[in-house]
Write a structure and sequence with these properties.
Length: about 260
């Protein structure tokens, strides 16, 4: 699988990160570089989508998107640290990790990543939706991670204790699984040619409970594992939560899966 990694901001003079107890730029760069190394060591392709410089904020954002799109990455990951900018932070509102995603597939990718980070002790603030430029202009599933809050003493103390390497490891495990998750699975790209449905078995969709069917539009979708049976492709999504661990089936005439 090919990942596009964006170390948020780090693009002077106009796009530099927030400043709280710590500065955002060094943190996103540290976590991002460690994440790229870990994904590469696990056998995946990695594209650094962080530009070196830009004259405007818009140019900085566009360069990140253009790099991901021109490199045809499968998943785009933008790493950030949060700050409660309006000055009315409370203990509950200004601590923890949250991840932003626009599509259902991106949200499925985000959930296990968020869970792995929360397992380190950070409050799980959920997967959210926002029209951030890098999410709505990338042509692949994209997530934007807000690791924790720069202006929270509790978060920064926890970050100091955990360290950037364990944060990167958590993100990596959420994206591709740890050793216990991987088994004999093989990743690939599901290429849907016409709008269809995902279903929990190879039975006719009309014979299955409507709530078990999910609409899927034409496009390319990264999958963690796949196979073929009874004229259907089956896939497993990056979301490895208990509810999404089972196979999802697509009739062969609507798409195919190609290995990475």
């Amino acid at each position: 699988m090919k990942f596009g990694i964006d170390c948020g901001h780090n693009c002077p003079p106009e796009d530099t990160g927030a400043i709280g107890i710590k500065r955002e730029d060094p943190l996103t760069l540290d976590v991002g570089r460690k994440l790229m190394a870990k994904l590469a060591s696990a056998g995946h392709s990695v594209v650094n989508c962080t530009p070196n410089s830009a004259s405007t904020l818009g140019e900085s954002l566009r360069k990140r998107v253009d790099k991901a799109n021109s490199s045809a990455v499968d998943i785009f990951v933008s790493i950030h640290f949060n700050k409660f900018l309006d000055g009315t932070a409370t203990t509950d509102s200004a601590i923890g990790c949250e991840i932003y995603a626009l599509s259902n597939i991106a949200a499925a990718i985000a959930r296990p990543v968020l869970g792995k980070i929360a397992n380190l002790g950070f409050k799980n603030k959920g997967v959210k939706s926002a029209n951030f430029f890098v999410l709505k202009n990338t042509s692949m599933p994209a997530i934007l991670i807000e690791v924790c809050f720069l202006d929270s003493t509790a978060d920064m103390n926890l970050f100091n204790s955990v360290g950037a390497d364990r944060i990167a490891e958590a993100i990596k495990d959420g994206l591709i699984g740890d050793n216990e998750d991987e088994g004999n699975s093989r990743s690939g790209i599901l290429k849907i040619s016409a709008a269809t449905i995902l279903k929990p078995s190879t039975e006719q969709g009309s014979e299955l409970p409507p709530a078990s069917l999910v609409n899927i539009d034409p496009g390319n979708y990264p999958v963690l594992d796949f196979g073929f049976e009874e004229r259907h492709w089956w896939v497993k999504w990056p979301d490895k939560s208990k509810a999404n661990r089972d196979k999802h089936f697509i009739f062969e005439k609507f798409g195919r899966v190609e290995p990475n």
